[in-house]
Design a protein that fits this description.
Elements: H1 2-30, E1 37-42, H2 44-55, H3 63-72, E2 75-84, H4 89-98, E3 105-111, E4 115-124, E5 127-137, E6 140-150, H5 152-161, H6 167-172
Antiparallel strand pairs: 1-2, 2-6, 3-4, 4-5, 5-6
Keywords: Signal
Pfam families: DUF4252
Signal peptide: 1-19
Length: 174
């Protein structure tokens, strides 16, 4: 009986995490075939390859590159959905409404008359498991989801040392 309860409990935890991931995936999927949008998905394997390249013997003399390679291997994947020359404000509102907000902690919220930018993180066990950036303006929309296993220091280094789309806004808001 205790084993069945434990299995049920674990199933509910996993289902709750997957449900949130599914909300983001559903949002991406909804606009996947819409020609107004550009889509990027970088798989965990690609991130491993990029990190491994930077840590390889060929680049070993450059310690900063090796450290960055180690950091990049912490990224499990990146999804980006973006559209230009589109009213992104309704899309921003729609994307925000799909999120289970109690799973995310707001890091930064920038609002003005024509645009909105929001950075949020999802933490588990004191580690950042997802960095989410949503922007919407009268002229564009961007949703970036970066999954991984980070500290906040890792995110600061990524913002400072990489050209990952959206991280320039993260760095600019520090």
């Amino acid at each position: 009986m205790k084993r069945n309860i434990l299995i049920l409990f674990l199933f509910l935890i996993v289902s709750g995490v997957q449900a949130q991931d599914d909300a983001i995936v559903k949002f991406f999927s909804k606009y996947m075939d819409d020609d107004r949008f550009s889509r990027v998905y970088i798989s965990p394997k690609m991130m491993q390859m990029a990190g491994g390249f930077l840590k390889s013997n060929e680049v070993k003399s450059d310690q900063e590159a090796a450290d960055l390679g180690e950091l990049i291997t912490k990224i499990r994947g990146i999804r980006i959905l973006t559209a230009e020359k589109i009213n992104g404000k309704p899309l921003y509102t729609e994307a925000m409404s799909t999120l289970t907000k109690n799973k995310y902690e707001e890091l930064m919220d920038i609002q003005d008359k024509s645009s909105s930018v929001k950075f949020m993180v999802r933490e588990e066990g004191g580690r950042v498991r997802e960095l989410l950036m949503i922007t919407g303006s009268t002229e564009n929309f961007t949703l970036l989801s970066m999954l991984g296993n980070f500290t906040y220091q890792d995110l600061n280094i990524l913002a400072d040392k990489t050209n990952i789309p959206g991280m320039d806004k993260y760095k600019g808001g520090k």
